[in-house]
Structure formats: C-alpha cells, structure tokens
Fold this sequence. Notes:
- By secondary structure, this protein is of the alpha+beta class.
- The protein is extended and about 125 Å long.
- The protein has 25 helices and 7 strands.
- It has a 5-stranded mixed β-sheet with strand order 2-4-5-7-6. Strands 1-3 form a two-stranded antiparallel sheet.
- Helix content is about 75%, strand content about 5%.
Amino acid sequence: MIDSLEHLYTQATDGKDRVDLLIRLSEAYHDFDYPKAIALGYDALAIAKTIAYQKGVFFAYNTIGLSYNASGPIDSAYLYTKVALDLAIVLDDPYCLAIAKNNIGTYYLNQGNYPLSLQYFQEALVHDGETGEFIDPMSTYANIGIIHEELGDEKKAIDYYLKSAEAARLKGGEANLAYAQLDIGYVDCMLEKYDSALQHYQDALVIYKKLKHQNRVAETLYYIGEIYQYQKYFEKALAIQKEALQIYQQIHSVADIPSMYGVIANLYKEMERYEEAIAYYKEAIKLAQDGILTSLLPTMYKDLSMIYVDIHDYENAYHYNVMYEALKDTLFNEITHDRIAKLETTYELKVEQAENEKLINEQKHQALILGQRTLMAIGASLIALLVVIITIILYKSNRVKAKLNRDLEQKVEERTAALEAANQKLLQSNDELERFTYIASHDLKEPLRNITSFVNLMQRKLEKIADPDLQEYMGFVTRNTKQLYGLVEDILAHSRIGAQGQKTGKAIDLNVLLEEIKMGLRSMLEEKNAQIFSEELPVILGHKSELFMVLKNLVENGLKYNESPNPQVRINCKQEKDQVLFEVADNGIGIAPVYHDRIFEMFTRLNNRSIYLGSGIGLATCKKIIQKYQGEIWLESKVGKGSTFFFTLPLKKISENQVLEMK
C-alpha cells in the first residue's frame, strides 16, 4: 500500500492531490513508524498552507496530533489536536468536527478528565449522524466504554464495547474486523471468559500481522499477555510482553515503551523475582523521565517502594515513597516549567520597563519643581527690589520674611526626604516579609512530608500489635500533620499573590477553569451527592492560578459548609459597563450578618474545627486576589438559608496574540 501511495505521489501534479496523498502516507506510517508519519504530516501542512487548502490544513494538523499522541510529547499532541478542532469549527464541516472532537476527547480521556472527554465523544457521534454515515464510531464507542469502565460501571462499558465491535463489522475490511475481535475479546476478559478472549485476540493478531500494522500487533500481544498473567502462566505472559515491548521499541512508540517496562516489572513482582522487577521498574522510570512522561512516574515510584517493603529494604522503600509524595506536589510545576519560566522572564522585563518609566517621570517632575522654584526666586527678587526702592523699612522686613521662607522650605524638603525614605523602607520591609512567609512555608513542607512518611511506615509495622490506644495516638498524629500541611499550603498560596504583577496575564476561559475545578472536587461531589451549576462564563484577562484559587475556594466552601442532602452551588455572571459581576450561591448553613466583614480576615473560623476542616485563609486569599485586580468582594447570607458571594473583575480587551496563547 505504501509503495503504491508513494508512486502516486511522485506522479501527482495538482497541489491538493499531493496534500491528500501525503496525509494518507502519514496515516499508513502511523502503524509502524511515528517519526516518519510526523515528518509527512509537516510536509502536507506546508503545501496545504501555501495553496490555501483549508481541509488539507485540517487533516495535516490532525495526523500530526495523532502521531504525537502515540510517540510524545503529549503537549504537542494537545496543541495540534486543538488547532485542528478550532479549524474544523471555522470550516463548520460535520466530517471534520466528528474526527476532531473524537481526537480531543481521546486526549482528555488520557488525562483522566472523564466528563469533558465524554462530552466530546458524544458530540462526535452527533456529527457522525449529520454526515449521513458513521465515520469512525468504533473508536468513539470504545473510548466511551473505557470511561464507564474507569468509573466502575462495567455493564455500560460492555454495552459500548459491543457497539464498537458491531460498528467495526458494519464498516468492513480486514483491519476493522480485527478491531471487532479485540473488542469482543476484551468483553470476554471482563467476564472472566479467558479461553474465549484468548481465541479472539489470537484471531486479531493473525490479521494485524498480515497487514503489518505493528502498533496493533504490539497492542494485541499485550492483551494476550494479560490473559496469561490472569491464568498464572507467568513465563508465557513474560515472553509475550517482552515481544510487545520489542515491537514498540522498533516503531519508536515513546508513549508506550515505559508502560511496557512497568508491565514486565509487575510480572516479575508476581513471580517473586524481585531483582528483575526492580531493574525493569528503574528502567521504566528512566524512560518516562527522558520522554517527559511525568504522569507515569508516581505509580512507578509507589510500586517500586512496595517491592522494597516486601523484601524488607525499608531505606529504599522510604526513599521511593518520598519521591512519590514529592512528585504528587510538584507534578504540575514540572510539566509547566518552561511556560512558567517564559512568563517570569516577560514579567521581569515589564517590571524593569515600568521602573524606568517611573524614574523618567520623577525626573520630569523634579525638573518642573525646580523651574517653579526658579520663577519664585526671580519674583521674590523683583519684589525685594521694588520694596527697597519704596522704603528701607519694608526692605528689611522682607529680608526677614525671605529668610523665614527659606528656612521653612528647607524644613519641608527635609521632611519630604525623610518621608520618602520611610516609604522606601516600608516597601522593602513588606517585600522581605512576603519572601520570609514564602520561604518559611516552603521549608516547613519537607519535614511534614517526612513525618507523614515515617508515620505510615510505623503504622505498617504496628498493624499486628493489638493496641487500640496506640492506633488512636497514631491516627491523631496523622490527622494533625495533614491539617498543619494544609495550613502551610494555604499560607504559601496567600504569600504568592501579587508576585505576578497586575499588567501581565493571559486570556483565561473560565468555563475550562471550572471544569478543572470540578475534576479536583470530584470525590467531594460524589461523597456528598452534590452538584455545581453554571451559565456560560466569560474569558478574563489574568493569571490562571489566581482565578483558579478564587473560584475553587468559593465553590469548595459552598460544598463543605453544607448539611443539605443535595448540596448545590450555582455560578452566574453579568456584564456591568467595563466589569463583570459574578455570583456564587449555595444552599449551605449560611453566615450570620455580624460576621460578613470578619469572614474575609486571615485565620477567621466560624465553625468547630472538628466538624469542618479548614485553615481560615481561603476567603482572605480570595479578597487579596480580587483587590489585586481592582475588584470588590462581598456576601449576602442568613443562617440556615445559604450564602451568595459577589465579586467583580475588570473586563479588558483581549488581543489576538492573547487569544492564540489561550489556544
């Protein structure tokens, strides 16, 4: 197939035909050579842009994004997939929209954002129907099945896997029939029908080997190895998984190689071959670090720590457990390190510009004052001369007055200089205080992590000792350590506000931000049977981390301080001239009017700490951020009738570059 496509490409003269053939070649190489697939995608993109072939541009972005999704880096996969979706929206083509939304849904699925991925998959199926035929429903159905499986609904998951298999059969072709075999085999595996599942996988493997779809061959081998592992045929499973790893290495599937090392390490662990398990886990960690696949590292660190516990090597167990805990705290910072560095550099340049402008303005102001004083001196001299001419007595009197004026001016200047020096010292003192708060909070986190880790190790050793008092004491230590850790985190976040300045920032889509907050609060929402409602929110110019803290604190408080059987938080907004007024309302326990002002002060708590956890810093942080944006925040509330927090943010014009940065 590739030879025939390459021959057709060499014969093609029309620009659109050449773009289409390059895209088909890229998709063909996607089965066994990702770097080649990416290179062909870039060639197609360059030609399509030159001849203004918009659909060609879309499919080029799409194939590049798919290749990066398999080979990494993940950031590049999201970038090209998102650009393809934006272009599909502009083209308003159901075919392109179905493909783009399925791919962006796959990205969010891999990131664990199930609500957002499900929304995109469902929209892709709607666009499928608009075209009058199914474009690629089998992968969409399969992805929805994965979501339901991850959420624990096996019945729905099986329904969608079977829909995927049926769609593959209807579409026809050997590759699609093999895909159907994989779906049915996976369903049998879920139902613990291992022999039947193994037969379906082997049938799919024969087809994929015939078609030379190496990535599918490796994937099918992995599933077969899983069956052997479930059946305790560890040697067979080990041989199969190593064969799959070898294929992934041959096609440079950077995203799959570290995971396969982890799978093989897990097999060695079950076989109690701990040395080989440790070696494979360490290689998996190294490859994940080299490929910037940071999201894989926490699980690997945790599994490796547990192996060391099994072999009673508590020093290494502690070491990798500390790395696991540390990575959970710093994962976001490591992934976005380059972006943050760029923002900090831009901010420093703008601060330097602002200081230079301030210095120039001060020099101009001093020159104006000097000119005014010069004019005053000339006027005084003329008056003195006139007084001398009129009368000597008046002249002497004016000399005395002039001396008094000069003394007064000198005193004013001295006091002005002293006041400026005092203001400068105050600014320096505030800056040093903020730095001290940040450093102190940051340095407190490390010993708290160590305490928590050692307490966990002690609890494991004390599990066999039946001493309720001792267990109660250990639980008390654990709870208070977590509480102190949360307080340090809140103080650290509070101290950081203002460090980014007011004139820098990006266009932030608050709808996307709210979805991230919902993901972070998913456990609380499920535990309390709670719901979050919002209307369409605007795009605001600002800093994502600060706006995230404001919305998260208000929403989380509405859920936390709520004894309703169905807690609800509603977010509304409306534009008022050059600002936006936001309302965050809940049906919680409410706040007495006497506390409506105190609630925004640091460390202010109105409720029993044993009932409602918290540091008393959240609303103070919200107020500090809102005031930084020159907005206001207040509330209306009655005890037992819920609370409504109001706050305003300026609505500034967003440039085209800022829109592109948001994308």
